[in-house]
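Sequence only, no structure available. Ideas?
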Amino acid sequence: MEEFLKFNSVYTDQYHKIAKEFKRIGENIYLDHAGATLYSEKQMQHVFTELTSNIYDNPHSMNMSGKLTEDAVDLVRFRSFQYQRSGVFNCIYIWCYLSSEDDRRML
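Reply:
I predicted one. Tokens follow.
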């Protein structure tokens, strides 16, 4: 027990950081991170700022907002490849069982 108590401040600090980022949880315990990890307050603030500061359009549209969307999609794709240490030609996209027929036709 004494060994554990040496780390009490570390756990307490982490608890406060988590409580700040996930205020809506309150006293509840959330364990389903594999199926649906919760988003933090900071993530939502960034998303809100991004969506209220820009106009996102069809990435295939020939206008500035379409170009912004295309660039955002390309950046996410690039970061995914970087994270996986992969490249465009090494990535295989597998459709989810619940994807629509229209989605599957796009291949």
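DSSP finds six helices and no strands in the chain.
Hope that gets you unstuck.
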